[in-house]
Every structure is written in C-alpha cells, then in structure tokens.
Amino acid sequence: MTLPLFLQDYTLQTVLAGAVLLGIISGVLGSFAVLRGQSLMGDVLSHAALPGICLGFLVAGTRDLGAILTGAFLSGTAAAIMVLVIGRTTRLRADAALGIVLGLFFAGGVVLLTYIQTTQGAGQAGLNSFLFGQAAAMLRSDLPVMGGVTAVALLLVGLFWKEFKLATFDPLYARTLGLPVLALDLALTVMIALAIVVGLQMVGVVLMTAMIIAPAAAARQWVDRLGPMVLLSAAFGIAAGITGAGISAGARGLSTGPLIVLAASAIVLVSVLLAPGRGILWRALRDWRAARRLEAGRVLLTLDRLARDHDAPGFRSDEGLLRAYHGTPPRRALARLEAEGLIRQVPHGPDAQRHWEITPEGRARAAELPTGAWNA
C-alpha cells in the first residue's frame, strides 16, 4: 500500500515516530506523577536536565545525542534525589524543596550554556534547540535511543505494576507490607526523568513538563481505575504528538514542540469540559436537572399539603397561590408535573388564572418525598 505523499517525507516520518514514542512514555509515567500529586516534579526534572545537556556536550565535545541524553538523565536523577533528601531531612515543605532544586539546577544550566556559547564557537550549534525543542533536527538514528529508553521504562512499569500501584494509592499500607516505598518513589521519579530525556529533542526543557502532566490529567477526567487511565493517557499523548507534528508539517514555520503541547492542552480542555461525571459542562447540566427536579418536588409537596390542610383531595390551587408559596411562577415545574401525570389542570369558573389539583399518583409520589423539601 502506497503511503500518502506527505507521509513519504523522511523528516516527517522521523518526527511522527518520535512523537509516538514521546506520547507513550509521557502518558504512562505521567499517570503516576499526577496520582502521586507530583505534577511539579516533572517541572523540576525537565529544568534540571539543562545542566546535564551542557555537561554531556562538554564531555563529548560535540552534539552527540547519546552523551547529551545521558547527561540529562543523570542531572535529572540527581535533582530527584536532592528533592527527596531535602524533603526528608529538613523541615521545609515539599514545594519549597522543589523550588530550591529547580532554581539551582536551571541557573547552573544557563551558566553552562552561556559558557559553551562563548567558548565552543560553531561546535555548539543546535544546543539551544534543547530549550524549546527542534523536532526537525531529529535523525533516524535518534529513534533507537528514544525507543530503547521507552521500552526500558515500560518494562519496569510492567514488572513492578502492583508495587507501583500500591505505593501510589496507599504508601502507608505498602510500608506495613514491607515494600520499599522510598525506593519505589525514587524509581518512579527516575523513570519520569527518562520520559523527559525522550522528549527533550522534540519538546524541549521548558515545555516538557506539560507533556508529562497534560495527557494524564486529561485521562483522569474520563476513568476511575489506574489501568485504563494509563492506557488512555498514552493514547492522548500519542494523539497530541501526531496532531502537533502533522500541523507543523502542513504549516511551515511553526515549531513542532509547542504545537504538540497545545494539542495536549486542547485535549485537557475538552476533557475538563465534557468528561462524563467530572466535566464542568456535564456537572452543570446535572446540577440544572437536579434543580428542576427539586423545584418540581417542592411544588408537588405544596399542592399535596394544601389539599391536606383543606381536607380536600381535589383542592384546586391557582398560580397566584403557588407563586405566593414559592416566590416565582413555578410554570416549568407545573408543566413537568403535568407531563408526568402527577397533577392536572382543572377549570375554575370565570377565573382567568389556571388552576391545578394533585392526582392520586401525585399524592403517592409526594408521600415518597422528604417532607423537609417543602421548606428547602
């Protein structure tokens, strides 16, 4: 089968493959970061990768991807360990530890980057691309490195799935079972550093944290279990990567990394608005329906109480009387109750106002409602 013409482009094929790998590892590991309340950890690790990138370049003497990614991984791992040490050995809060480590490593990275730019001449060409990403600079030979890192991270998640799951949701219980919770936390954090390493060339240091958090945050709106969340998060990551790469290929001059992040952010926005049960619009619709049901229940109880107070099951209440009880004309509630057969409209001589009486079905329904709703 012949591929469409635009998919035959060598660079686009490479970028799409990289975007898929990035989406998978970001979605899977980002799920654990979101559920553990460590969203800011991704921000710290992505910025902490900058000094590692520079040190990898200085050691290799050239823009060697393997050396640069290794340096980024080691730098990110060191930052993760420092955050854990500060949090466990001092009285500082977790956010303070994250802020200290982020500022320290990123400032060090900027200093090293400035040094390289002033001393290495043309040899540092393209190093700035790791700040905001430059997907077009990816080579086909870079994909095995990215694929290998992704495979290792997925393998570790699969091997220690139960342990990671228990340490994420109930670390105290995991500790009572003898599980090394600190080691599991460190392993998950190191794997998040791996995910950041995979995305450095595509998205860059500054925006990589969004790729760690956005797909998982979107998936969390749709599902309630870890397994489906991880799979859906990976799918959202892949969709964002392919969408951003595709738009970048069709619109010359637009950077792929920011477009991938914008696509992921759009998925989050749609999920926050429309996800069943949790979406803002879904909850607004649910609350609106509940308010209408409550209003109808109060009107039904009013008609039932008036009939009982007058000792007349067929007591006819006009709209003015109901308005006096409820403050506003309950026309929508009356129409709903009439449609359900709980009340019926009855004539009342020359009076121009409509009159209503409760039906036997309405009295039975009113008996099932809490009496406190009448005064709600």
UniProtKB/TrEMBL annotation:
Designated name of the protein: Metal ABC transporter permease
UniProt keywords, alphabetically: Cell membrane, Membrane, Transmembrane, Transmembrane helix, Transport
Membrane topology annotation: Multi-pass membrane protein
Main subcellular location: membrane
Localization terms from the record: Cell membrane
Keyword RNA-binding appears in the UniProt entry: no
Organism annotation: Halodurantibacterium flavum
Transmembrane residue ranges: 12-35, 44-61, 67-86, 98-117, 137-160, 172-194, 200-218, 230-251, 257-276
Pfam annotation, one family: ABC-3
Family: Belongs to the ABC-3 integral membrane protein family.
Domain of life: Bacteria
